[in-house]
Specification:
Layout lengths: L2 H28 L11 E4 L3 H7 L3 E5 L4 H12 L5 E4 L4 H9 L7 E4 L2 E4 L3 H15 L4
Parallel strand pairs: 2-3
Antiparallel strand pairs: 1-5, 2-4, 4-5
């Protein structure tokens, strides 16, 4: 191998690494897909009664059929025996319009009580579900 070909190979590897790191950073910063519990999930407070009225349930999951974090959120809700309504925005036009109206820019988005979780964070979701269950029980 000549010095020139070794130098060319090194240059290609450096460019490929730079592009990979840059693309990963871009996806993470834009929040296009939840980060799988690495702290990027965001919790918001609000009155989501209209969301529940439209979806017909107390817990609502907006998802994409191809999103692995959406699947994780759905599995966790099922494992916790939480009754929820899933709105798959790439398979249901009405769900997509709802998501547009709610200004949902990334998935999953889970509405529980007066909180919404944007992105997937297992610990935060469990915490929100526990708080909701506790507040839903009548005082003794």
């Amino acid at each position: 191998m000549s010095f020139k070909s070794i130098l060319g190979t090194i240059a290609i590897v450096v460019v490929a690494l730079a592009l990979g790191v840059g693309a990963g950073t871009l996806v993470k910063r834009t929040g296009l897909i939840g980060d799988g519990g690495n702290g990027g999930a965001m919790v918001e407070q609000g009155d989501y009664s209209q969301v529940y009225a439209n979806a017909g349930g107390e817990v609502v999951l907006y998802s994409l059929s191809t999103c692995p974090f959406c699947h994780k959120a759905k599995e966790l809700l099922q494992k916790q025996n939480v009754r929820f309504v899933e709105r798959v925005i790439d398979q249901d036009e009405a769900a997509r319009k709802e998501a547009d109206g709610l200004k949902i820019k990334s998935v999953p988005v889970i509405y529980v009580g007066n909180q919404s979780l944007h992105g997937y964070d297992e610990a935060k979701l469990v915490e929100i579900l526990a708080a909701h269950a506790k507040s839903a029980k009548p005082a003794a």
